[in-house]
Amino acid sequence: MTVEFSLASELARDCIEVADWPLCKVLLMNDSQYPWFILVPRKAGLKESIDLDDVDQLMLMKESAKLSQLLKEVFNPDKLNVAALGNMVPQLHIHHIARFKSDAAWPAPVWGKFPSIPYTNEQVEQLKTHF
Q: How far apart are CA 123 and CA 75, in angstroms?
């Protein structure tokens, strides 16, 4: 029996779906304080990037580079933070956060630093135009 992909409930709760790329679902963390996007490969049961076959590992790297380049071009950040932690959400997902020396949490990590400020519908629609 084949297990179908489903998005972890925490990601579904905290994020807005932006796009589907060949391998990954592109999510926007619903916190307007930081341009914070997440790639989630649409394959069931993944915890680590090494759980992907060689072809999908390469596709994940390409999609991560594509998203990183997009964040660099659109937001012109001081630094890009790219990480796969998964301590709280074991489903494989890769965070891509555009960081600025002027952002609320700089230079600390963004996780739990401040209460999130949700995006407006207009802000979400504007961000989706880049995908």
A: 14
Secondary structure (3-state) at 17: strand
Q: Which of 113, 99, 123 is nearest to 16 (CA)?
A: 123
SS3 10: helix
Do 88 and 10 meet the contact criterion of CB atoms below 8 Å apart? yes
19-70 pLDDT, tens digit each: 999 999 999 999 999 999 999 999 999 999 999 999 999 999 999 999 999 9
From CA 113, how far away is CA 26, in angstroms rounded? 23
List the one residue out of 17, 55, 23, 28 whose CA is nearest residue 42: 23
Query: Could you tell me the pLDDT band of residue 1, with boundaries at 50, 70 and 90?
Result: low
pTM above 0.90, yes or no: yes
Return phi, psi of residue 69, to 5°: -65, -40
| Of the candidates 110, 121, 114, 112, the residue with the CA atom closest to the CA atom of residue 36 | 110
- The dihedrals phi and psi of 38, each to the nearest 5 degrees, come to -135, 130
Task: State whether residue 88 is helix, strand or coil.
Answer: coil
